[in-house]
Amino acid sequence: MATIKVPANVPCPEEDSEQLRKAFKGWGTNEALIIQILAHRNASQRKLIRDAYSAAYGEDLLKDLQKELSSDFERIVLLWTLDPHERDAYLANEATKMLTASNLVIMEIACTRSSHDLFKVRQAYHARYKKSLEEDVAYHTKGDFRKLLVPLVTAFRYEGDEVNMMLAKSEAKILHEKICDKAYADEELIRILTTRSKAQLNATLNQYNNQFGKAINKDLKVEEKDEYLAFLRATIKCLTCPEKYFEKTLRFAINKLGTDEWALTRVVATQAEVNMQRIKEEYHKRNSVPLEKAIVKDTTGDYEKMLLALIGHEDA
Amino acid sequence: MATIKVPANVPCPEEDSEQLRKAFKGWGTNEALIIQILAHRNASQRKLIRDAYSAAYGEDLLKDLQKELSSDFERIVLLWTLDPHERDAYLANEATKMLTASNLVIMEIACTRSSHDLFKVRQAYHARYKKSLEEDVAYHTKGDFRKLLVPLVTAFRYEGDEVNMMLAKSEAKILHEKICDKAYADEELIRILTTRSKAQLNATLNQYNNQFGKAINKDLKVEEKDEYLAFLRATIKCLTCPEKYFEKTLRFAINKLGTDEWALTRVVATQAEVNMQRIKEEYHKRNSVPLEKAIVKDTTGDYEKMLLALIGHEDA
After folding, report:
1. Which of A207, B9, B135, B147 has the CB geometry, 3.0–4.6 Å to A195, for a possible disulfide?
2. In which residues is Ca(2+) 1 bound (chains A, B) (predicted)?
3. Considering its fold, how many domains does chain A have in total?
4. C-alpha angle A114-A149-A248 in degrees, rounded to nearest 5
């Protein structure tokens, strides 16, 4: 469930875009007005505002926002204002680049979006970067990470609820064998994780738990520090309980010495309209403090205000 | 270019479906009428006929065709009547099954369809089989074949003409190194073949030829018989000159001791509305005999008539 609050009577896109134009003009930028408008419009409304803005002023709203804003506030407003599929394409592209490389961001997009949404991200990637998402991901990764990541981003998983229990049992066994052998990048293990529907995968992991008396992610927790293994665990978490994965990402971002604003921004901007309600519940449960309180404690200024508006706590 | 001939004045779908119903009734089936109608309608017209038939008689036209027809004629009429994406999904599914398994058929679909069409095949696969194309392909293949085939079927290649010449040069070098090392299933080689746009891949293979004085497929021709290597060559051919690949498939199907009707049917049914004109030209050039003559020599009856109608030679 979404956390943004859209007013009952939304002004027409022309009016919103005129107000935004005003917010940019004159003595200093009116950040409060920008938040008041953009943080309270859904994706299709924001799209119409961008169109109206470009029709009225011949300029891209995003470019003007970029000119007027700065730092973390700029980043969250820009990410938020982008169409969700364009936003994911943008984040994924950024995550393939040298200085901002992040297998985790790419995996998160591949595993937590619906099959149809993931495909639309791939279309948006073509349109914007004139190449395919998978070619960039494959080019910029290697070894075990590539082996797992490329099939994740190219998957078009079946989304029905149908489950084949025989298959769940046999594939749970395969997973267990591979994990016992420490063959964490084995092709059968990767095949199962990257091609099966989420319903089927859930059934398989339940079987794993039933047959072997332990959750798979417990078996994947080994003593030595292994980046790929941590990545594999995160992948399984994203595929089976995305809200727990996002809770953990927020927890680590906030508890870090010096908040990880990129992670905080990414989770809020991508989830505010999707699953943020559940993520907030998980956060409260796990940290004994509501997310909005944690955000107030850790951030400041317009950035803080924007975050709070997006998670539905304007007045925290 | 397509080879089917659609009359200037096509009857309405209701009329066509009524005629087909008549062709099924009475003393024996009227095969000539079935050919006269179905072989001369394009995909969207055939779709409308199926809809009209089901609305008028409460039955699926395909099921009735199946009841009335038999053998090779049945197969080509059924395949032809299917919507192209459903047809590819059907052929791919068949190709994952034990007795009809064929990596070549799956590869052919993955490599010769446009990115958008391939995605529609994956959607049709979900709808019909309640699972994903890639999960069946991955499940039913192994080793090097799987390594190459799964990324081929999941690809969503960029389709623009843009070419990066620096990249073409460097990746031609990578391909050459891997081939020199006989690392035919190397992950870099597979990455290049399965993720790059066809335009980029063509540039890379041209660079290969320029830098190393030989076409890549010449370098892949080794003395010993190696199924995977033949498959790799066919993949490259499909990606770079599909009409030559289809010509060769037809040539082998026809020249075989006992025609390979499945291959002949598949190529004609899938290409008649797409690229058959070019394939016929290639066939004539390479075999010094026009395709229609070769078909007349090798096939008989209604099957022959249907093939000829689809390649635009009703009266050969």
Report:
1. B135
2. 24, 26, 28, 68, 254, 256, 258, 296, 299, 304
3. 4
4. 65
Binding site feature residues of B: 24, 26, 28, 68, 254, 256, 258, 296, 298-299, 304
**Per-residue pLDDT tens over the stretch B204-251:** 999 999 999 999 999 998 767 899 999 999 999 999 999 999 999 999
| The domain boundary residue, chosen from A110, A127, A154 | A154
B21 is a domain residue: yes
Whether residue A265 is found in the same domain as residue A231 = no
Among residues A128, A154, A180, which one ends one of the domains?
A: A154
Q: Mark whether B287 and B234 lie in a shared domain.
A: no
Which among B123, B131, B155 is the nearest to A154, CB-wise?
B155
Is position B6 within any domain?
no
The interface pTM score, or ipTM, of the predicted complex is: 0.89
A17 membership: H or E segment, kind and range:
helix A13-24
- Interchain CB contacts (distance < 8 Å): A and B: 91
pLDDT tens track for A248-275: 999 999 987 788 999 999 999 999 999 9
Supply A136's token pair: 């960039």
Chain-chain contact of A156 with B131 (C-beta, under 8 angstroms):
no
Contact B195 A139 (CB under 8 A): yes
Q: What is the pLDDT of residue B47?
A: 97
CATH of the domain at A88: 1.10.220.10
Distance CA A178, CA A192 (A): 12
Beta carbons within 8 Å of A223's beta carbon, 6+ residues apart: none
Nearest by Cα to B309 from B283, B276, B278: B276
pTM beyond 0.90: the answer is yes
Query: Is residue A24 one of the residues assigned to a domain?
Result: yes
Domain hosting residue A256, numbered range: 242-310
